[in-house]
Amino acid sequence: MVRFVINRFFSGLLAIFVLATITFFLMHLIPGGPFNAEKINARALALMEARYGFDRPVYVQYFDYMKDLARGDLGISVKKIGYTVNEIIAEKFPISLRLGLVALLLSLFLGIPLGMLAAAKRDKIPDRVIMFITSIGYSVPGFVVGALLLYFLGIRWQLLPIMRLDTPLHYIMPASALAFSPLSYITRLTRSGLLDVIDQDYIKTARAKGLTRVVVVGKHALRNSIIPVVTYLGPLTANTIVGGFVVERIFSIPGLGAYFITSITNRDYPMIMGTTVFYAIILILANMIVDITYGIVDPRIKKY
Question: Which pTM does this prediction carry?
Fold first, then answer.
């Protein structure tokens, strides 16, 4: 296991290096720059580019950035004057983290029981209703769900607050918008996994011993069918914690997502690089934890 963790650590570093390299050069291949939209003369433009080092050759900027990145320095934001990218992430990420964790828990605590219910009632009305709803949820993007919730529950019927995350009630709509699609997918994964194992010999043996349906499904069948859900948790965790960019914009949540979107439109190079690298780190760590969890959920899976 130790060897596996070390190998994944170094492969993760390599993945971050490759991603940062590709993002850096693609970003500079796009015509224009961070200050082209500003109404300033040529001399002022030259001074601004010199201040942030954009007047140097691209390869020099690349090597300087990679050296700073190795030290954990993500640079200085071009548009938010006086703030480093590290400070912005440290300030805004906890907001996105809280929202993402609520959405993640909502997906798991509703998706797995619904999948178990659908498998237990296979081809009956509960199964058909759940599969119909999850088919819609898996197909509809989160920002569409968010916009519908905002209009009906927030504006038209005025049942829930529509902006920020000041109280627990503020979490209901944005968390539901983030969770609807992964909840639907987890439900379908759980159902299909249970249906694959529920007719196997060891399940029949457990039933023959007189064990209750709850024990058979919860202790024996679910544990051996949950691997696809565990696999999905890696990218799901990263997406819900860091990836709710559009949902945050819809509900005016001052999280990291707002800076990711505005950094692209404003051509804030350090912020683009910083959020991209930060997202990659979260994704790699989440996948590493998932791989380690395999051995806990199913001892037959070994990592070396």
Answer: 0.82
